[in-house]
Amino acid sequence: MDRDLVELARKGDREAFALLVHQVSDSLYTVAHRILRDPGLAEDALQNALVLAWRRIPHLREPDRFEAWFHRILVHACYDESQRARQWTAHVRVLPVDGLSTPDESAAIADRDELERAFRRLPVDQRAVFVLHHYLGLPLVEIAELLEIPAGTARSRLHYATLGLRSALMAGAEPVSQEGRPA
Amino acid sequence: MTDDRSIERAARSWLEVGPTRAPERAVEAALVQIETTTQERDWHVPWRLPKMTTPLRVASAAVIGVFVVGGALYALAPASSGPGAPPPTASPTPSASSSASASPSTAPSASAMFPSWYTDGGNGAGILTAGSQATRSFLPGFTFTVPGGWVNSGDEVGFFGLFPDTPANQAEFAASGDIAQAIHMGPQNDPYFTCDAWEDNQGATAAEIVAAMVANDALATSEPVDVTIGGLTGKQVDVRLDPGWTESCPGDPPGFDPGDGRTRAILLDTPDRGVIVIFLGSLHSAGHEAFLAEAMPIIESFHFDIGQ
Lengths: 183, 308
Known about the structure:
The complex is a heterodimer of chains A (183) and B (308). Chain A has 183 residues and is mainly α. Chain A has helices spanning 3-10, 14-36, 39-56, 66-85, 103-120, 124-134, 140-147, 151-171, and strands spanning 89-92, 176-179. In chain A, strands 1-2 form a two-stranded antiparallel ribbon. Chain B is of the alpha+beta class. Chain B is built from six helices and 14 strands. Chain B has helices spanning 4-16, 24-34, 54-60, 167-176, 206-215, 288-300, and strands at 65-69, 72-76, 126-127, 131-134, 142-146, 150-156, 159-164, 181-187, 219-221, 225-229, 232-241, 262-269, 275-282, 303-304. In chain B, a hairpin with a 2-residue loop joins β6 (150-156) and β7. The chains are: A mainly alpha (183), B alpha+beta (308). Chains A and B meet through α2, α3, α5, α6 and α8 of A and α1 and α2 of B.
């Protein structure tokens, strides 16, 4: 990350900020999609995070921590999108499809579907810690610092996320909550 | 697949599947929106910024003005900053005859003048003549009356700043690049005085924000009082770092001393701009009361255009 660009952006240089955006947007969107599990919500979260980051970058006192700071803004934008999405949900029963894949492929798809359903049941703050830890590979201490939460809170969210996944997987196929956007 | 390790392994593999490129339309839409979005102001203590070398400060003067209010740093980012921005305003030694226009508006011109020692520039009107003045960009707009010797450092939709051209401010600026005593204002629903990580001074109304300040263990506050300024009602409270607070702000260098800054915060509820926060602050406690005596009449002369 170019420290000079960050310093310029802090002082109101929009072109510098645009360059930074292009450097980090792929990473941010990837994380948002993993947390929200919906491309539309992830897109909205990304867009909101980018605008909010521009507004708040004068508050960033450590330019070297720009990426972590940006990820924190993104995670909170994901929380907001998740909150909005909960205003409208539809329950969809996933029907089994026969004859379209080999037994091994079906098993793999079934596992992914189960994980998808189980993950969607988790509260968004647990999903965020789970993604930051298992997808970005961040240690819990760093996640706690990034999200400005106690390390114990980060640890418990990860624990309960894993517990939630296990419980949901053991419970088997059930009606799926599909998060959507308000009309 | 029921034990934690197998779940985690499967989840890692599962998380790898998915898009890895941000949709261009989302990025471009955000950048378009940013073109008309102003940045928030940084209210934290000035000495928390790394000391800039003189050449860097001179270079940055073209795009930023930095000053302090009562232990809260305020970084000015003129709306037109960045490549292609107009050059910094000239700051020749002012004289009675060459001071800012005698017209009542704070409209800046290419010849907006600042005290010669104030090299940070800004998009305000510069040195103000004594008498009636009006904002140019700040919302809600307002008129006010100033005595001689005051400087309008910035005037944007979301920020307005004033500081007195005094030996104390000049000395502080020479020593640290900061302003010792100033007024600045803008819409804020989460102002902080010393450390954002400690302070959660949030609220949708003046009363809520002030209540959060009072409840904050890091801050020592006076008893809030109701005020009416320029047709807007709200709360006034004096704030400083609690003497018993011993935590350091994350990121501060070891042994950092936040000092004894003093701030009078006036929070006003507006019909459509949320809460406007007016800070009257001093970097050091000595001289703060005298500063308030000079500054409060200016605040009390405000008349807001609430219809804007």
